[in-house]
Amino acid sequence: MKRILDCRASDFLTFNRQDLIESIRKSEGRTILAEVIPTVQPLYPEVTNAELARAFGADMILLNLLDVFHPYIKGLESHALFGDLPGEEVSDHPILELKRLTGVPIGVNLEPVDFSEKSPDMDEVKQGRLASLEAFQKVSELGIDFVCLTGNPNTGVTNEAIEQAIIRARQQFAGVIIAGKMHQAGVGNVLDQDAYVRFAEAGADIILVPAPGTIPGVREDEFYQLAQTIKEAGSLVLAAIGTSQEGADEQTIREIGLSAKRGGADIVHIGDAGHSGIAVPENIQALSIAIRGRRHTYIRMAASVNR
């Protein structure tokens, strides 16, 4: 199995769940996952935010706030891949078209809201964003490669609800499952070691943990201990920059990325709040160069989707 560093679009077309996991594992902490919001006006209207993130070095793209029952990606052209088929437009196959344009694995956030924790300050989450059996069935139909079970701010996502969502996902979804919290998301403890172990035991392939320095109290030594516990439980570790620091200066991003790598992260995530639904593109590039150098960064940036 190739390292994800060495994979091109044609490799990803043949990947199954275990292939993607093993390719990440073999890359030894040098995988970049960029989160974008596909439903807002892209930073530059001529291209999707996903294409821009990939162009600056992302190996994987995570779509946030996507309604899987009504998937819409702003910036896709209606005459693209499926436009020449009778009665078919790109709007009928948005994920497949996005995969064709970016040439990398595409995932989606689904939110395990705990409705027993309902409070007046909680945001309402659309059905197409909830971590339900129907949503997991739908993402399989759409061609999604991985799901991330986590919560946006004020959505009432709890660790208990995440654990139950992992079990549902494993029943209905054949792809990679990421689970955890980037920040408080309204309810519960973000740094719950016992919960991380339960997530792994329930079937999560990758556990999401806030990167050192992204939320108060997450130091590198604490992150390291959590990462070791997660790996002993059989899962990979994703370090998340999900507290709007994706809009910070490049030096801050480099420091967080290196700290996450020293702490044992297999994937470093960068969130969607730097600009209009995307990290500052230069920060994606700076993160990539920091944890794997110019060689692998420039190759990912330059490699054609026709390879």
What does this structure look like?
It is built from 10 helices and 8 strands. The chain has 307 residues and is α/β, with parallel strands linked by helices. The protein has one domain: TIM Barrel (Alpha-Beta Barrel). Strands 1-2-3-4-5-6-7-8 form an 8-stranded parallel barrel, surrounded by 8 helices. Helix 3 packs across helix 10. The longest helix is centred in the last third of the chain and has 22 residues, at 281-302. The protein starts with 8 loop residues before the first helix and ends in a 5-residue tail after the last helix. The relative contact order is 0.15. The model is unreliable at 81-87 (pLDDT under 50).
From the 3D structure, determine the CATH topology.
TIM Barrel
* N-to-C CA distance: 17 Å
- The number of helices is 10
> Averaged pLDDT, please?
92
CATH class reads: Alpha Beta
Beta-strand proportion: 5-15%
Total domain units:
1
CATH superfamily: Aldolase class I
Low-confidence regions? 81-87
Radius of gyration: 18 Å
What's the topology here?
Elements: H1 9-14, H2 17-26, E1 31-36, H3 49-55, E2 60-63, H4 94-102, E3 106-110, H5 133-142, E4 146-149, H6 159-172, E5 176-180, H7 193-202, E6 206-210, H8 220-232, E7 236-241, H9 250-262, E8 267-270, H10 281-302
Parallel strand pairs: 1-2, 1-8, 2-3, 3-4, 4-5, 5-6, 6-7, 7-8
Helix pairs in contact: 3-10, 5-6, 6-7, 9-10
